[in-house]
Specification:
InterPro entries: ABC_Transporter_SBP, ABC_transptr_periplasmic_BD
Protein name: ABC transporter substrate-binding protein
Order of helices and strands: HHEEEHEEHEHEHHEEHEEHEHHEH
Number of domains: 2
Keywords: Signal
CATH topology of the largest domain: Rossmann fold
Family: Belongs to the bacterial solute-binding protein 8 family.
CATH architecture of the largest domain: 3-Layer(aba) Sandwich
Largest sheet: 6 strands, mixed
Structural class: alpha/beta
Strand content: 15-25%
Radius of gyration: 20 Å
CATH class of the largest domain: Alpha Beta
Number of helices: 12
Distance between the termini: 32 Å
Shape: globular
Organism: Promicromonospora umidemergens
Length: about 325
Amino acid sequence: MTRTSHARTRSAGAAVLAAGALLLAGCGSAVTQTPSRADTDDAVTVENCGREVTVDDAPEAAVGMHPAQTELLLRLGLADRLAGQAQATAQALPDDVAPLAEDVPVLGDAMPPSREDLLAVEPDFVYSPTTYEFTAEQGFAGIDQLEQAGAAVYVATGGCADRRMTGQVTDLFDDLENVGEIFGVREEAAGLVADSEAALDEVATAVADVERLRVAQVYVEGTTLQAIGAGIEHDILRLAGADNVYGPDDPAFAEFFAATITPESLAAEQPDALVFSVYDEEHEAATREYLTTTFPDMPAVRENRLIAVSSADVFPGTLGNISIVREIAERLYPDAF
């Protein structure tokens, strides 16, 4: 999607879904109630988005800036370290961790909290999926402001500005290792990484010998058609066993992971399947109608390979990045599973 539509759909698209539970139910991961605390007396420094993030002690007042980050903190056994959960109406927490967050203050609704609301809970660690949540022009607290207030700020690796075009699903593993180091819950973080790696390995084995289908990833808003050709979205399709129609080497994606295309250009590619992100049921229905009426003779439409995925699952640094790989692979190659 374009820069404008991407920003617009954060409030709607950010606002939907509940998918992280899919992965953890499939992988057998559990919520850690009482993590083993490592020695956190010494300062910990990690690299993040070209910055050094340093904490002198394990944080005691963390804020998850999106339900996906709140979920990760809960699964690491850090419920007692949460001072707030932001964008809480953007995505429901999975049933098995939701009770742990019942007493955690909700900051804002589907949008990031205001500067005042975030600073009011006096966070010492703020964990975000992207740098958007720190856009001062939007009235949000900037990274500098949070650091001045004594909060360490960590952005999901795939959400860093310099990583958006080349992000990979496995960037999540770097995040888990870094957060595990910061909070002194290395073993718990390693367990989540191991579960996620096992899930990806299972998909890789299943699709290893399939005849790969040509797949285009698109986004439809009204009658505007956009192709997705880079970043985590591209990597998700690759791991699902797709032969991507669009890729980062295409000039159209030299500077941004999405590009507006004409219906004629997509029709000419004759993809075997279309993957498209949606932010609610109404958006999914409208997109399906547009695709089926605009491309009735396309193999993807004829073979009923129109695969809707939640926009929240393609946010950087989420467990949804893992579960969506299997979801797409199963739709593309049902006989392989």
